[in-house]
Amino acid sequence: MNISYYLDTLDRFLIYLLVALALFAIATYIFKLITPYSERKLIKSGNIAVTLKLLGKMAGVVVVLQSAIRHSINLLDLIIWAFIAIVIQIVLHLVIEYGLTRKTNVTKEVENGNTAVGLLLGGVSVLVGLIVAATISY
Predict the structure, then answer these.
(1) What is the pLDDT of residues 18-52, one digit of tens each?
(2) Which residues contact 19 (CB under 8 A, 6 or more apart)?
(3) Domain boundaries, the chain
(4) Which parts pass through the membrane (predicted)?
(5) CA distance from start to end of the chain
(6) What is the pTM of this model?
(7) DSSP state, residue 101
């Protein structure tokens, strides 16, 4: 084991980690902006449906970020791929949530605590994240 290699690359690890965490926070904040209700307030009151939906969105973003990290050739490449993937993740989330479920007001269902709908939307976010993550490659 060559410990000097790890010490020499520790700075790059920390930079990638901080950038990935910042991108995660940005993506989560954007999702918060497009959500018509206060997730924090509903989670605090015990709404499991909102919790499942938010966790799914966050997990979908993490899957996308880990793929961008794995496939990037440098820090700028990571940031570009991450932003592209996050935008696609958000657009696909909106299409699925509002386009494919027109006959059901899924936003109201989740806000009212419908756990099945929250789990479905959270799960779809993870699945979409897996698909988007798989497309990031060279």
Answers:
(1) 999 999 999 999 988 988 899 999 999 999 999 99
(2) 75, 78, 79
(3) 3-135
(4) 13-34, 46-69, 75-96, 117-136
(5) 30
(6) 0.85
(7) T
